[in-house]
Amino acid sequence: MTTRSHTPRVLALLIAAAILVASCGREESRGPVTPILHNSACDIWPDSIDLHNGVTMAVTADSLMIVRRNGNAAADTLAAPPPREGAMTFISGIPVLDFFYRLEASTAPHERYSLCTPYEIYLNPLQREPAMALLRSRLHNDLVVPQEVHRMGWPLINCNGEWLLAASELANATGDRHWLSTVRRVARQVVDNDMSMSFNHTTGLFCGIPPYMAANSGIFPKWMQPSDIFAQCTSGVNVAYCAALHNLEKRWNGGAYASQTPESIYLRMQSDSLLHTLKRRMWLPNLGCLSALSYGVPYCQTQLSVTDNLAQGIAVLSGILPDAMAGAIVSKTPVAQEGAELFHPQLPELRGSVTSPVPQMLLLSLRALAAARTGNEAAYSEAIGALMQGEARRLAASGKRKPAFGSTFTSLITRGLLGMQFMPDGVFFAPYVPENLPGDKQISGLRYRDAILDIHITGTGRAISTFTLDGKPADTFLPASLTGRHTIRITLAGASADPGKVTYQQGTPVAPPPPVVHWQSLRRATLAPGIPFSETDSATATEESRPHGNDDGSYLAYLNGILSEEILSPNYRLYNARRAVVVQLSYLADSRYSGFSAAPYIYAPPSSNFILYASSLAKTGTKILEDHTLASKFVESDRSKNRNISFTFFAPREGRYLVQLRYVSGLGVVNSQRRLALRQLRVGGHTAAVLMFPQLTGSDVAAGAARSWQEMTAWTNAPVVTLQKGENHLQLRYFQASPVYADPTANAILFDQIRIIPID
Known about the structure:
single chain, 760 residues, alpha+beta, Immunoglobulin-like, six-stranded antiparallel β-sheet, six-stranded mixed β-sheet, 27% helix, globular
């Protein structure tokens, strides 16, 4: 192969482009060359980039020159460092792509466990040793050590699914049977723990939020106490769990399951059940996407009309969704000119944010690979262009060599262009080269288990014309037994019959904040549009405190999690409610986007809403509170004092009841690095639920700034229990979970009342 220097041509092109852009805008003549990306924000050509913000880049495979048109035409040159020893090489004939890959390939794998490491390993599981070391560092006694992000920890944050997904993909890619056995053992244990602690048996989904939501907890309305945040069922947590369990039980190429052990059968049953529920409860058919979360009281939850695009990318790429759902997500979820955003529409607190709890390059990578998986060439091409645009903007801003996300272009090559799908006994190839990346592609030194692969791709599209191994026709499935060095040649047959489509968002759509709701009586309320979470507490905002005007939206009323009516006036009346009803009221802006509702309102006839004061159940008083008058209202419970508290409740009828405790986090707020307290709720001598007493969050501290932390109370989660008519014997039993999840020294609570609400 002949190599020629591009330096003189690049310099000439750069100078000419700067002059032309400055004098004539973007009217450039490129001849027959096709742009990789063209939109209002950026033009990307095979050898140059115009960011439309005064920055132009000229690129070869070896270097990138940045010209900032600021009057003096200052130029910075960034040379691509040599590839890391043992890293594969990639040559596409497209200088922009080749340079970005070389820049990434020169960077060593991450040496610390970070927020994004599980997903990075999932996208690029071929770095066996560093990946396994990172994942092992998160294990303790066969449990995944929980992440604590921004003063929020377990059980509010559930990172088990993310870890299992990365670990299972690493097992399938490496074929390490010992590691696979470890992962299955950990999976069984964490599933058992989460089923007892975090599983909502009414909805059939796991509770809690993923770490990246906790990293920007301002996305939640301020009426949400820690127990409200925990009670949410998010697509981020449940998709990761579904994908992980699906990964663990992938079929062998011959069709048989990899294992028929009781452990595997158990995990497979949990996977099937969880996936069925996910599709039924989280899918928004009118929007063609998955809801980011459902929220409200445990037995009736409302879907938020906002998508979590990280979770959706994982759902599509992992193959857990039917083709129709996966295709709808890729084609219908709106994207900005800069590519996919974490949430759509954006949540109020994140509007205009310069930082994101998830790296943008990770989102763009998932978007590109999901589009390739569904065969949507328009979305695939758009996402690849957005990847290049994102990296170009980062380099223009920082000039740093280290990639923002360490698997961006590596995963684009291995899982996108090559379409590698890792199985327990080998790897499938499903290559896909979009038309905006023409020319031959050469990959050398790709290590797969005990084999080294040199791969040559000719043509575009996803239909395979020929596939050869060492010059002989071969199947696109390579067995894991392959050893030594081999050459693969792939010829693609051209463009697909269905080019697919992309939905671009108009402007910057933002979900409205919760409305301001004033309940004037048990059945009547006045409504007003809310204001951004950061400006005031939407649960207590007054008419005078909110902005006036632009009230051209309407309100949606949900009863027991089901949409009941659209309200066009600022008044709401609850009709025909004979027993307990959960009312959630949200604001609908521009007839398109709705956001979080106001705090759920539980209507219950006064005669059926029961309050049991702690003073009637056990001896009050505690040394934790300095105020003796305040201390006399609370019962202290720890491993030696009031360890188990028994009481009798006379239910007016047989049925289901919500049970909650109002409490103080007895040994400090969450920023004291304490974790939650736990108690078993037993009915008739049998464990009916686990009550959780999370630490108070930063918003709780802010809300009670005028008081000492000891005065701030919150409600626990509200599990549903079945009570018989008449006498029921209940007990709060001291309960100590694994120290991996909860600190034994912090398992103390103060509570002042128990609330019991019938819901049948």
